[in-house]
Amino acid sequence: MRRRRGAWPRAVHIPGNAVALVGCLPGFAAVTALALCAHGVDRSVTAARNTHALAARVAAPHTAPKPAVVPRTVWAGPDAAAGKQPPPRYDDSVVAVFVHHTDTPNAYRCEDVPRIIRDLYAGQTGARDFDDIGYNFLVDRCGTIYEGRAGGVDRPVTGAHTVGFNHRSTGVAAIGTFTAGAEVPRVMTDAIAALSAWKLGTSDTDPRAKVRLVSSNSLSRFAAGTSATLPTLAGHGDGYMTRCPGAALTARLPEIRALAARLQGRS
Asked: Residue 204 CB: number of other CB atoms within 10 A?
């Protein structure tokens, strides 16, 4: 079939925004217009991609590397290992950290920590009738982090560490007693900061900020149902009537918050 003079072959595809312009231009002028239009489209696509990439970088969350965590199996005795406690419960995310101390002797050997955690587990699940150890994590004076409550360290496990504020938070216990005048090892506070930066980074939460949490228990500092504004990285005493984690460790919380923020890449 003969094509009409000036008609385009059907195999040629013309960008939609170029059709009107090309229809008015013959020969070489039309080809030149097509090239200009195509160039303009390419530049628009590139600009859009660059804008999208920039927006993605701006919106990127502040995260921190996961520190080494000794698994529960290292310290768990027969009862904990058998998983006699009920199945773990989970929240949607972790937006707060509560720091505790275990109120146990400080002069321990770090190789004895698995036994110490077993004793804490036995005390909490025995006389206190907990379903598992309440703390999500424990940190010893050598800076080693241990998994506490069952359910998976990477997941937002609901703990039993701060009455009224166990939801959407994680509980970190410093092994020892850190009342006024006690030495708080630097490696311990560094480990708490690293752990907090990682867990809070999963929700892009600034460790130096404030967070609104709803109290679930009137035995806390706030009546059940009250929306309380608390430090994102708080001491146990911020949510419950207690001197935990001790005056010495409480005094180190600003330093821990600042280091956790730096580990998340915040200025």
From this structure: 14
**Distance between CA atoms of 4 and 24, rounded to whole angstroms?**
17
- pLDDT surpasses 60 at 224: yes
Distance, C-alpha 59 to centroid of its chain: 16
- What does the pLDDT read at residue 83? 62
Q: State whether residue 158 is helix, strand or coil.
A: coil
For the record, the structure tokens of 88 come out as 């773990």
| pLDDT 10s digits, 132-155 | 999 999 999 999 999 999 999 999
Exposure string of 1-10, with b = 16+ CB inside 10 Å and e = fewer, is: eeeeeeeeee
Beta bridge partners of 170: 97
**What is the token pair recorded at 159?**
């703990």
Q: Is the pTM of this model over 0.85?
A: no
The CA distance from 207 to 201, in Å, is: 9
Interstrand relation of 145-147 and 137-139 (parallel, antiparallel or unpaired): antiparallel
| ∠ CA 37-39-43, rounded to 5° | 115
What's the whole-number average pLDDT of the chain? 83
Distance CA 54, CA 49 (A): 9
**Are the beta carbons of 173 and 138 closer than 8 angstroms?**
yes
What's the length of the chain? 267
Q: Which residue has the tokens 């110490």?
A: 116
Is 216 exposed, middle or buried, given 0-12, 13-18 or 19+ CB atoms closer than 10 A?
A: middle
Report domain extents, the chain: 16-59, 72-263
| H helix and E strand count, the chain | 8, 7
Architecture of domain 72-263: 3-Layer(aba) Sandwich (3.40)
Q: In a 3-state reduction of DSSP, which class is residue 125?
A: helix
